[in-house]
Amino acid sequence: MRVLCTCLPGHGHFLPMRPFATALAAAGHDVAFATAGEFCPHVEKAGFPAFPAGLSLPRQLEEANRRYPEGELPPGKERFETFVPRMLAGVAAPARAADLVPLVADWRPDVVVHDETELAGPVAAAVAGIPWADHSMGILRPLQMLRLAGDTLAPLSREWGVDVGPFAGLFRYLYL
Fold it and tell me: Against a cut of 0.70, is the pTM above it?
């Protein structure tokens, strides 16, 4: 089976997925990752093929701060619950989907496993007509955050002609 894992470009997003990906590879599955280009060497050093997809973290933050004024708020609950979902769904996901949709069409995985904050994976999987699994990074996020992410992601889903659900693709199939 071919498994494409997708994650935001950072150790805190990749490392929680690594044991699962390692277990899949040890069981004989073909596993690769898609993440921002500058993070691909870290994935490759861990022994996985890596495809460049999406914006770097500094570029995501720069663009999100430009679009969403709450990005200028000091860190805290309000910023976390409004800015973060908009950055992930409104900035990171469209740029990453532009790379992931053709990658999924070309590489032809059987399933996409996305880090729960990487929201283009479900869109690319839905376009290809394959299932996706959500890989948790820790605590379950508040539902109001997930609804905001879903509302923010909806135009991208419509653009690609798919529906990934009200929570930005989370909870459709399997939540790990």
Answer: yes
